[in-house]
Amino acid sequence: MPDWGWPAVIAHRCGGALAPENTLAGLGIAARLGCRAVEFDVMLSRDSVPVLIHDETLDRTAARSGHVARLAAEELLATDVGRCFHSAFAGESIPSLQLALDACRRLGLAVNVEIKPATGCEVDTGRVVGCVLKEMQPALRPQILLSSFSADALAAAAAEVPDVPRGLLVDRFSPQALLTAGRLDCVSLNLGRKHLDAAQILAARDAGFKVLVYTVNALPEARQLAAWGVAGVFSDRPDLLLPG
Ligand code: G3P
Ligand code: MG
Fold first, then answer.
1. Contact partners, residue 199, CB within 8 Å, separation at least 6
2. CA gap 197, 199 in Å, rounded
3. What residues form the membrane-spanning segments (predicted)?
């Protein structure tokens, strides 16, 4: 188990209610707010370049349509995902994983890299993300936690960078999730907030896992979870949760 310096309030999708999600603009705002950590989602382009995006299509976040896995990196990296959020962010484009990691290190942000494979690309996405991290000099990497809903993606990443800590994402706690997280040698279980209770958090902690919870946008809930022993929460509104 590595040292757990993982901060408690993690800007979800780089703080997706305050800036276009999964963008460099979001990273900058998260850092200015005083966040110590961010989370972003990573998917592969057609030519296997890892880029920051949550959905398998561009439809929700860009002013154009298209499947991420069918578009070349050149097209994705030139896609405006700012204007759909607010005209003030027009021109903000999809960043590559490499660019986002460099920005995190420059800004002093720890990062949870969520491997978000397009369907059928689980192993490839995990492997490529792992390779990007492996090729970075450890001194030039920000502090990283890898996570995924896909056990196959996590295992493939772990084969490349066994030293980078991992968290298994599940939308609901289950005894099976504990077994899978154990098999993958995870340090954390990253759980959806719905249906979560104190007993489940205790069971995860007793099994040796830190618990991170998504997506928490209200201070009373964050305080309740902290009292139950969670190590951190992902939030679209870190400004509401960080100490004033
Ligand atoms: O990693 C926590 C959270 O990001 C998982 O859900 O769908 O927002 O990527 P999602
Ligand atoms: Mg995510």
1. none
2. 6
3. none
Distance 168 CA to ligand 1 centre (A): 11
- DSSP string across 115-143: E-PPTT-HHHHHHHHHHHHHHS-GGGSPP
Q: Which of 142, 144, 177 is nearest to 162 (CA)?
A: 144
User: How much is the pTM?
Assistant: 0.97
How far does the centroid of ligand 2 lie from the alpha carbon of residue 73, in Å?
20
- 3-state SS of 180-206 is HHHHCCCCEEEEECCCCCHHHHHHHHH
Separation of CA 40 and ligand 2 centre (Å)? 6
Examine the residue annotation and report whether 54 is marked as an active-site residue of this protein.
Answer: yes
Give the ipTM: 0.99
Q: Kindly report, residue by residue over 26-84, the tens digit of the pLDDT.
A: 999 999 999 999 999 999 999 999 999 999 999 999 989 999 999 999 999 999 999 99
Query: Is 12 one of the catalytic residues?
Result: yes
Q: For the segment 172-211, what is each residue's pLDDT rounded down to a tens digit? A: 999 999 999 999 999 999 999 999 999 999 999 999 999 9
Q: Which domains does the chain have, with CATH numbers?
A: 9-240 (3.20.20.190)
Among 53, 54, 68, name the best residue to mutate to test ligand 1's pocket (greatest count of ligand atoms within 8 A of Cβ).
54
